[in-house]
Every structure is written in C-alpha cells, then in structure tokens.
Write a structure and sequence with these properties.
There is one protein chain. The protein is an alpha+beta fold. It has a single domain (about 5-345), classed as Beta Polymerase, domain 2 (2-Layer Sandwich), CATH 3.30.460. Helix content is about 60%, strand content about 5%. It has 17 helices and nine strands. β6 and β7 (about 180) form a beta hairpin. The longest helix has about 30 residues, at about 65-95. It is globular. The N and C termini lie far apart (about 50 Å).
Length: about 375
Amino acid sequence: MTVYGRMDKHGTDILLAALRDPVHAAGMGVEGWDLLLRVARHTRLLGRLAVVMEEMGLTSQLPAKVLDHFAAARVFVSHRQRAARWEINRILAALQDSGVPLVLLKGSAYILAELPPARGRLLSDVDLLVPAASLDSVEQTLLGSGWESVKLEEYDQRYYRTWMHELPPLRHPERGLEVDIHHTISPLTSRLNPDPEKLFQDSIPLADGRLRVLQPVDMVLHSAVHLFYDGEFINGLRDLVDLADLFGHFGARATFWSELIQRAHEQDLQRPLFYAMRYTQRLLGADIPATAMTDICAGAPPRIILRLMDRLIEWVMVPDHPDFPQRGTAIAQWLLYVRSHWLRMPPGLLLKHLARKQIMRWKRRKPTAAATAQQ
C-alpha cells in the first residue's frame, strides 16, 4: 500500500503518512493538524507522535496549539507509565516470598526494559507470564493482597480457566490498571501451540532480578501472535507500530533475522510472523531484509486468504475519518474477530461459545428495551 496522507470521507492515511514521514507532517496547515491530532488520539498514538516530532527536532515548526496537545499527551502517557511501574512494584511486594519467575509482556516489558516501543506508549494494563504450575498460588496471593477479579460471571471464569492462555483479569480497587496473568502466549485450544517452557528458559533478567522479559525473538513473536491472532484490533495500529519498532531495534544485529525465523519454525509461529513482517513493511515502511521476507514466505497463507487479509488489515489499520466512520471498518473488525475465534477454538466449542455470548447480549438488552417502552 502506498501512503499519501490523503484526507477524505472514505478514511484517512494521514497518521500513517506522519509516522512514516514526520518532516512532511510538520509542514501541514491547521486543517491537516486538526485531523491528524484527532486520529492520533483515537488510535492511542498521540503521545508517540509527540515524541517522534521532538526527537527529530521538528517542534519549532509546529503551531502552538499543536504543541499544547502534544504536551498534554505526554503528561498523560507519563502518568500511565508511572502507574504501570507502581502496579508492578505492588505485585512484586505481594509476591516477594513466592520465588515465582515473573516475565513482563508487551507494554510493561517495553517500558521497564527501556525499548523503543515505550516512547510515548499508552497502556491500560500490566501483562505477566508465570509458569502454569504457579498460576493458582500467584492468583490467590494477589486476591489475598487486595486485587479483585474483573470477570465475575461463572461462564467467563470457566472460559478463561479452561480454554484461555491467561487468568481472568485482576484489578486493585484503589488503582485502575488491570493485571493479566498469562501462563503461555496463545489459548490452550488454539491451532498455535508454542512451548512456554522455551519462553521461560530463554527470558532475560532486568536490573531488578525478580523481573524478566522475553528474549528479542520471542518478544517479536508474542507481539505478532497478540496482534494477528487475538482478534482485538482496537489498538491494532499502535501494536503494529510496536512491531515496527522492535524490528528496527533488534534488526540492527546481523544474526537477528535468521534467529527470528528459526525460532518461528521451532514454535510453529511462521504465519503470525509472516503477517507481522508483511504489514509493518507495507503500512509503516519497516526496513526488513529481502532475504528475511523470502524466507518467511513459507509461512504465507494460500493466495486467496492473503488477498482477503490484505483487504481486512488495511480496513482496520487505516483509521476512519472521525467525521465519516465507515461501515466497512466495522465489518472488517467483526470478520477478523470471528477469524480469531475460529483459530483459537475447535468448531463445536466455537459454536457453543458464540451462541452463549449472543444469548448473554440479548439478556443484557432486554431491561434497556423495557425501560425505553415504559418511558
């Protein structure tokens, strides 16, 4: 896909253009900046855009009101990152005598490991990976220390504990950050079946030895699985930017690309890695060696599926114009959501699950409809 920064009612690639070429964005007029700021805020990338503009020395060229928005975004990002650090501090205090290895994932890992995706990154939860054998003790310790389960319905509890790769989210009533405790990186019923033991064995300790992060190739693979197989594309563009940052940072090491593709084969994660490399290159201009792209093509889907994925990913990654939301975007998000469930559940279980969720939606709507009729 070629990005031109066009602005029309059929969606806008102005944010993609600004991320790829900040110098061009700096010269826009007020109308362009108005649209860019709105789109960046909606996609949770306003803080990132602010950091990029400052790093490139472009802030002196920007209107004063744009700088005000950037300043506010950076304050908010700083607040959320500080809250994540404090949440991790409280988790460590609660688990100080447990001896359980704690591996940070996604945003918390980027922040505490001081990796490029942390720049201006907005996050709303803390993700941890712990051994499956320690799940119960970790959960009970946190519950005993004041955290509470966010998912209270019996079916949701069973769904997480029986089929998913994580416990039901926890949240401390005094703080707003969710804590997601994983024991692997894909659902137990998923067609993907990476070995979590390898993730722990090769994880890297941080300065605080109680915390670890995934090794570079595993960090990339987890990010790819999360984006292209979890089915939630609300923060899809932000997560794609994360991947582009990781490719740019780790890819400077000569052996990274061969190690990454080899690890993808070991863990049977070639398909999500293919998608990650394809779409970071096509949409964000990620610098990926041609040899690596050729090697990972073994993980490509059949041509007809790839054409469909190209169309769907473009729909969900190119933001809608905020004044002209497109029905096609909602349809694409729904199709990708259904796809993710098809990949994570066998057909019989999937039908039961979707039927159950639809029934619960109907039940939740009934009181609202009755109240409206009474008015």
